[in-house]
Design a protein that fits this description.
Shape of chain C: globular
Largest interface: B-C, 71 and 64 residues
CATH superfamily of chain C: Metal-dependent hydrolases
CATH architecture of chain A: Beta Barrel
Distance between the termini of chain C: 37 Å
CATH class of chain A: Mainly Beta
Number of helices of chain C: 18
CATH topology of chain C: TIM Barrel
Number of domains of chain A: 1
Helix content of chain A: 10-25%
Number of domains of chain C: 1
Oligomer: heterotrimer
Number of strands of chain C: 28
Chains: A alpha/beta (115), B alpha/beta (456), C alpha/beta (546)
Amino acid sequence: MAEKIILIPGRSSKQGTSLNQGKLKDEYIAVTSTLEMNQDDMDRLKLVDGDEVRLINDVGETIVRCLGKKPEDLPHGTAFIPYGPPSSQLMASDTAGSGMPLSKHMEVEIEKISA
Amino acid sequence: MSENIKIVKNATCTFCGCVCDDMELHVDLDENRIVKTKKACVLGKAWFLEHTIEKDAHAAMIDGKKVSMEEAIEEAAQTLVKAKFPITYGLSDSTSEAQRQAVAISDIVKGNVDTTSSVCHGPTGMAFQGVGESTSTLGEVKNRADLVIYWGANPAESHPRHFGRYSVTAKGMFTPNGKKDRTVVIVDVRKTKSSPVADINIRPKIGKDFEILWALRALVKGKKVADDIEEQTGISLETLEDLVERMKNCRFGVFFFGMGLTMPRGRHFNTGALLALATDLNEFTHFVAKPLRGHGNVTGADNVVSWQTGYPFSVNFNRGYPRFNPGEFSTVDLLSKGEADAAMIIASDPASNFPKKAIEHLKSIPVISLDTKSTLTSKDAHVAFRVSTYGINTTGTVYRMDDVPITLNPAFDSPFPGDEEVLKGIKKRVQELMLARHNANGARGEAKVAAARIQE
Amino acid sequence: MASSMRIINGRVYDPTNNIDGEVKEICIKDGKIVESVADDATVIDAKGMVIMPGAVDIHCHIAGPKVNAARKLQPEDHRHDVHESTPFTRSGTGGTVPSTFTTGYRYATLGYTTAMEAAVTPIGARHTLEEFHDTPVIDKGFYVLLANNIFLQNLLRENRLEEFDQAVAWWVSSTKAYTVKLVNPGGDEPWKGKKNSNVADIDEKTDEELSPRQIIEAFIKSVHKQGFPHPPHIHCNNLGHSGNYITTLETMKTAGDMRAHLAHIQFHSYGGELGKNPTSKAAEIIEYINNHPNITCDVGQVMFGKATIMTADAPLAYVLKGHSKGKWVNADTECESGCGIVPFSYQEHIYMHTLQWAIGLELFLMSEDPWRVLLSTDHPNGGSFMSYPKLIKLLMDKSFRHEEMKRVNQKALDSCSLRDLEREYSLYEIAIITRAGPAKVLGLPNKGHLGVGADADITIYDEMEDKEMMFNAPRYVIKSGNSIIENHEFKNDFTGKLLHIVPEYDKKIEEIVQPFFESYYSIEFSNYAVDDSYLHDHEIIPTGQA
């Protein structure tokens, strides 16, 4: 069952340290494929840490693994992901004349990938 | 680890915009790598320890095959000169000396130059052009700031030493007790690793920064705000009024703001509202605002492009002089509209972090890449240069996020050339090729004139 | 590129060597003026032309952190004024704050071959030198801001004058500056630390201990003792405020009989009451200067049209923000300086702007010694350097001046004496206020003249009735013996060199500065001094010959 969430790509220190090893290395790929979610949202979607989910919008889709965060730390209906190739798959190219693609607060659909 | 250790003091970390210049590096000269760092944060440590020399890498490759440096420079120059709309992008993780060469190349081939600013604090640059900015160097924050407000930024993870060196626990001339002498406020939609540092955490609804900043401007000027402000923004009037009192009554206030303002809807309107608020507050006290710049020398890129062209980023030379227009000459737009027909990418990896459509076009045109590591961009490049790392292997100048320039003190030699050296080579060659083309055109022109005379 | 050259048949204006329009041959070899050259030297026939040394701008703002901020701030200033590349020169943009390449080329197109950036923070020296490297043709140097330096002020508070001298020398040496610049001494701390206030009087002790006068006096004495080629370059307190001429007179008196250079003195020659419209006190100011050969100044003429206020005097910029209502930049530099930037426009119909324009002209026209009252617009504060030819015409052509006077605020003219001044500058005097004078005041022995041994920086103009047209477009410009402009066209590019001084100091001063640094600066002491890699071509002007 798909549900709409707001995706917030951003920096994390792990994303920062792993990119120094190289962007084609396993750790960077793992870090940038980890989606932090509100635990309540995860419970409702019957997700547990490490489950694969598909994120979809008009631009494209990507598959990432989810990780729960305390509900008071991340608002309902939002999810955080470190910048990287997976978040790029969802980024629209329209910059509204600014040069800056909309890179935060992106509306995406999330769905669990059945094992 | 060998016994052959060199210690480098006051080296500079160029990973983030903090550009900490107090690093102590222990270099194993036999293995040519840094084995230990003192004072580096988690990001800095990774920066120094992971930038080793990859012995199996080639300094120059064409279509994935090893070539000589001369061949690669020739091919890069030919590619840029042959293209109708060559673009240069990246530059933020390079010295200002290299940046100067890169802008020169774009000027000479009448191409386009843009930096990672356009997808970082470009909207702050645009806001700056609109409203100006009250700002200061970071030492002034350390010495004087008694109210520090972070907005849409998570320095604990993006700029880990920012609190300690400059803004929160740092002890200065009029802040001898460090954090005790300051009030720290963090405005962010989510709890981050920075949140515990704050005396006051403000958690607005997503995408309401502009509305909050505008309400604060109104309150600072003694005007009323909408009754349903809390409903709209998630922040109570009481909280806003308390913040306004603190801002008006502090001795030296500072905003640090991040991509929480530049990247979502609103972009330069968000940053413009914040810069305008800081300006307004100077009617009551001393107040400054600073973007938390990301890459080591993105501030240098803004400076170099500005002094050479008059504009900070997204500059086009197609007509033989600089024109500025983000949205038109910004790289994301040029690529996703399919306009560029060759690209030189310096110290950046758009193939991994640009929008999908832009990446697709990038993959369809010849790319020249300069990078210290293999990336998605360099992997598919037509001409790929493997370069040494600034600050670790090469010297040069880096501008800290507050425009303070620092000279790099490198740790060990690399078998790979620096960006500046490669770019100087390309510049020399494109200049020769363009001059030859000019002379050829000129000769043709004269020949035409002669022919016309004969006909008469 | 530098070959030997002979310029024949031109009328030479070389005031340093008392040559006033005589037809004289000028010979060039290896970048210098020489007695004679071999017969195969390139010959320029300057018949009907006027030969002058390359001009020297003693006070302008062309490079460094504040200039670049002003560039970034004003895309609207660049768009309408582009500068195209050629196969051998770089492109750029103009307006009141041109890009670096355009700055160099445009100075050259006016016959200027040397320009001094008048205000650089020590921590911004590296940035300034990088921009200089990208500022072609002209030779350049900069003055380093030291009057609001907290460490130096602390030494003065503790009366440690010996260490003060050493520290001044250390700062000038380590930044590769040309002299010290004093801007609104004592004004930074009230601005940054006391809710945007300012110091109002030269004898006001904002912290109970130190007044602006004490700071000014200390620098004048120190620089005098150390024999810098150019004395402290002073931007007085109270710039722009009605009644400030008293402060200016007091500042000059503080120098006693030691040398002092007063920058853009027009902005400091106002009578009247604070907060009300000013009156002209040009007569009082120029009288003091006429009678005191130790004092030199540049005028800081206001020219109508677009300008950009950029100054280390942050409180002043804030006041102007109140008038312009537009965008504003404030930029504080730790322990060293403040800075303000405001786009501005001087308009003929406004009383204040006309009075400023008139006071500048009064100062020029009442000056009895052109060697000490020098041409500047405080570019781009009073107007762009591109308006120098028009300013020269205003000085040389009284009928033009009177025509221009019809277009300005008459009430302002009623309140000053400009209408009564009939003087016209001669070409010889223009050569003094734009060449020989600034070179002499700067202590540059090889600039501003055409005697044997001088740098071969030469401008050749077609002699024309319309002096604005004449000075707008030299037919030839030669820089260090290189032919840069021939028949009004760029023929070559050239980098130019840095002019700086290296006063000696006792190394022990570093041990005294360092602990302060470690506590209050945000960069490491060892990363502060500018190393020689930033010099490119340079010339050290000797000190200690006072």
